[in-house]
Amino acid sequence: MNLESIKIFCDVAETKSFTQAAQNYFISQPAVTKQMKQLENYYNVTLFDRNERKLKLTKAGETFYPFAKELIRINEIAFQEIQNELNEQNHRLVIGASFTIGEYLLPQVISEFKKQNTNIQIELSIGNTPSVLEKLNLNEVDVALVEGVFQIEKYDVYKFAEDNLIAICSSQNKLLKQDSVELSDLLKEQFIVREKMSGMRKIIKNELERHNMTYAQSFMELGSIQTIKSAVEANLGISFLPKIAVERELALGVLGNINVTNLNLSRDFWIVQKDTEFRKQIVRQFNDFIKGKNFN
């Protein structure tokens, strides 16, 4: 049994004519007869009385008719609901982003993207890199924009920008009076760092290990860039933070950039997706938009 046979059955019942039903569906009369026979075989009943001069439904046909109409109606509702859902999904973009990208880079990007796509709804979920990638794995976000160290080979990735981490301190800190500071001397200071799972913290750890160094003093662990900035501004310690995240404070003079000798804390920004060829149209458009922008 298929839905097309049920639709034809209803048309035959209403027109009382195999010929008219065939014309309505642009098929031959034998094709209509064949589909009705298949439907009768499926239910193991006779649906039409063909002995009468005028075609009419049998008792079984009359019983089946309202159910057939309901099946058609339910199918039409289901089809429309699915189309509505698809349309909504195609105009709903859920982005997962790590803290630096989500808080300092994406607001302007989203604003520009929405100007080109006025009818879309964008949701932004911000967290550290591992938590954002976990949401991608669970299909809770359509696309992830992250930085730091992760298993790139597991995903479809594209590097869309680079970022530098710089050493910052309060404008009152004595280190700003020096033309340059050795990394070994810098690490004697009280440090304020992100949580252990932070991608930014992993990059700093890797760079320090490259110099065979580690933090010499105890450090304060805080969960967000904004909180770290406030703590550094209050002269509670120094930190490594993304340059993009402190440009305003540097311009205002409330934070200072410590010139550290032989320090390379650059990192890549990645747009990350599951490795699949099936993607919503709005996701493909967002990918192209990101890839077409110059973030330097």
TrEMBL record:
Protein name: Bacterial regulatory helix-turn-helix, lysR family protein
InterPro entries assigned to the protein according to its UniProt record, in alphabetical order: LysR_HTH_N, LysR_subst-bd, WH-like_DNA-bd_sf, WH_DNA-bd_sf
Keyword Manganese: no
Transmembrane spans: none
DNA-binding listed as a keyword: yes
GO molecular function: DNA-binding transcription factor activity; transcription cis-regulatory region binding
Keywords assigned by UniProt, alphabetized: DNA-binding, Transcription, Transcription regulation
PANTHER family: HTH-TYPE TRANSCRIPTIONAL REGULATOR (PTHR30126), HTH-TYPE TRANSCRIPTIONAL REGULATOR GLTR (PTHR30126:SF40)
Domain HTH lysR-type stretches: 1-58
Name of the coding gene: cysL
SUPFAM superfamilies: Periplasmic binding protein-like II, Winged helix' DNA-binding domain
Family stated for the protein in its record: Belongs to the LysR transcriptional regulatory family.
Native species: Staphylococcus nepalensis
